[in-house]
Structure formats: C-alpha cells, structure tokens
Specification:
single chain, two-stranded antiparallel sheet
Length: 370
C-alpha cells in the first residue's frame, strides 16, 4: 500500500488487512482430537473464503437496494444497479469455480474429520440466508428443512437479523415497484397492447397452420403439438386478461405483478431502443444472478453427493437431496426468465410512433400530465 492520507497514520500491508487475526483463524479440530486430518485446512479456508465473498455480495446488494428505493429512478441509478449486479455475478463465477478446489479432497479424506463437524453445517450460514432474503426469496417458497423453519438452525444471536431481512425491502420488491411505475405505451391515439395482441394472434395462427400442414408429422404428432401449443395460448391469454393473470398470481404460478410483467416485456421487446439499454441490462443481470445461484446450488449438490452419497448431512439434513430440491425451488426471478414465451419476431413488432419514442423515458411518471 503506497498511498497515505494526512488524516491517517502510515499503514503497513500486514496490519491494514488484519492478517494476524485472519491467518490465525484456521483451527483444526482434528489436531485438537489428536488425529491430524490434512484436508481439514482446505475445508476451513474454502468456507471462510465463501463467507468473505458473501460479505462483499451483501455490501453490493445493500447499495443496490439504496439505489432502487426511491420514487423516481433515473438513468444513473439504473447504471449503478447494473454495475453492482455485474460485480456480484463475477463473484458468483468465483464461488462456482471454488467447488473445483474443494473437489481435490477425496471422500475418504473428508471422512477423516467429518464427524468432528457435527452439528455444524453450511445450512447455518447467516450471510447466505441474508443474501437470499435481500434478493427476494419469500419464506413460503423455501423448501422445508426437516419440516422446521429454516431459522431454527441459526444461532439465537442471529435470528433477529435474519427475521428482519425477511420483512424488509428486497431487490425483487423494489424492481417490481420500479417496473410498475414505467409507462405502458397507451397514448391518445396509439394502444401498443392492442397492436401487440393482434401481432400475437397472427403469429399463433401462423404457427398452428405450420403444424397442421406439415406432411412430415403424423396425425397423433400433430394432435400432441397442438395440445402443447394450447398451453402457450393460455399463457398469452393471461397476459391480456388481468383477471386470469390474477388467478395465476394468487395460486403461485407466477409472482411478478400484472403491471410489472407488462413493463418488463416491453423492455425485452424494445431493448434496441437506446433508452431501454440499461433497463434491459438490469433485467438480464437479475436473470444471470438467479441462474448462477441455481448453478452454484446444483454443483454443490453434485459435490456433496460425491463426498457423502446418501448419508445425512453434518447439520442433520438429508444431505444432497435437500440441496437438489433447493436448486429447483429457490428461484427468485423465474418470471423474468419466462418472458421469452411472449417474444415475437422483430419484424412483427408494432412500430412505435415518433412521439411515443420521445416519451419513452424511465424517469417519466405515467401519472404526471406534464
């Protein structure tokens, strides 16, 4: 460290990074038990590094929440959120790659000290639970951990902190609010959604004609394809019918609100418009974050399966099976990912009038008459 501020005394690298404390924080239980297990050092350092990166992710998430938690979000705020998300995503890549280092430890090496860890478990990571809650994983969506509340495995000193994060603002809730405040392209003499609905109708009719006239398909294959296509039609119908959409929302099929879904779709459809570049990046980075969390959970599941097979985890969970189920269930931004269902070819998109393009601003308040 070569820089120095007049208000601070000269810093030494070792002291500035508190390396005395940091490098003495690896205490091997196997040594205390008189049965040295070489790979316990790797196991400890890997998980300590995870927690350090979790701390940085929380630091970035908190800055994202601050940028989004305001009535009007301008271009600079969106840019801040995108840059913070991109940093988190790079950290996630590191977390996934770190599993490869842990996999240099063989199952037999792990068994040398595994029993000493009980009942400690990665499930007890307070910071990871805070990350999930701050991103927007709702409590009711969590996969049950042995039929008990996930907080029951967290130390009493941290329960209040985790409980508070359950009921506080999240990236999901603030992004939903931001989307709900954007204009929806319904102006005096131009109704985008009416034009889009007609374009969708033409596309669906064309696709069904292609299926019916395809000589390479048998009658049973055509019937099967058309049946599958009817599901797609129902999804489009829900997009245009708010009462149907609300039924899906209430029964948990979807989570993002009707207005927010429309706004997000608008951003995806017209992402080539300069004003929508950053909003599109923001939504895309949220999808990346969600997918990388799922990837990390899945790779963690594979690694645990490789290490302990079908044994019970050190924390008492059903080990690998629990990790597999959370990878499937703990998605937060799946509604954004599913918006590709509603994309249509660029050539079929309704052409926006010039004055509509001029008004398409994301710090424009659709309730204002200015």
């Amino acid at each position: 460290l070569h820089f120095m501020n007049k208000k601070t005394k000269p810093q030494n690298y070792h002291d500035y990074l508190k390396l005395d404390s940091l490098l003495k924080a690896q205490e091997l239980l196997s040594d205390k038990a008189g049965k040295h297990a070489h790979d316990e050092m790797l196991f400890i350092i890997i998980h300590q590094v995870y927690e350090l990166w979790f701390k940085q992710i929380i630091f970035e998430i908190d800055s994202i929440l601050e940028a989004l938690d305001r009535k009007k979000i301008d271009e600079s705020h969106v840019g801040i959120v995108v840059s913070r998300l991109e940093r988190i995503i790079e950290i996630q890549h590191l977390l996934i790659d770190q599993i490869k280092v842990l996999e240099t430890m063989t199952p037999m090496d792990f068994l040398d000290f595994r029993d000493l860890l009980t009942p400690a478990s990665g499930f007890q990571s307070v910071q990871f639970r805070l990350i999930e809650n701050k991103i927007g994983l709702p409590k009711h969506q969590r996969h049950s951990y042995g039929g008990t509340d996930y907080k029951s495995k967290i130390s009493n000193s941290h329960v209040n902190e985790v409980s508070k994060s359950e009921n506080s603002r999240s990236i999901f809730s603030l992004v939903e609010q931001w989307l709900e405040r954007t204009p929806f392209l319904v102006f005096d003499d131009f109704d985008f959604w009416d034009q889009y609905k007609k374009a969708v109708g033409r596309m669906l009719k064309k696709d069904k004609t292609i299926i019916n006239t395809n000589d390479q398909l048998t009658d049973s294959e055509k019937k099967s394809y058309l049946k599958q296509y009817s599901v797609t039609e129902k999804m489009f119908n829900a997009l245009f019918d708010e009462s149907m959409f609300m039924k899906w929302l209430n029964n948990g099929k979807i989570r993002l609100s009707y207005k927010a879904t429309h706004a997000a779709l608008l951003i995806f459809l017209y992402r080539d418009q300069p004003i929508l570049h950053n909003p599109y990046k923001l939504l895309s980075r949220l999808i990346d974050l969600d997918e990388l969390l799922t990837t990390w959970r899945y790779k963690h599941h594979l690694m645990v399966t490789r290490m302990i097979g079908r044994k019970i985890g050190t924390g008492g969970s059903v080990g690998a099976a629990y990790l597999s189920q959370t990878a499937e269930k703990h998605r937060v931004f799946e509604d954004l990912t599913s918006l590709t269902t509603f994309l249509i070819p660029r050539s079929d998109l309704p052409e926006l009038p010039d004055y509509v393009l001029r008004n398409l601003s994301f710090y424009y308040d659709s309730q204002d008459k200015e």
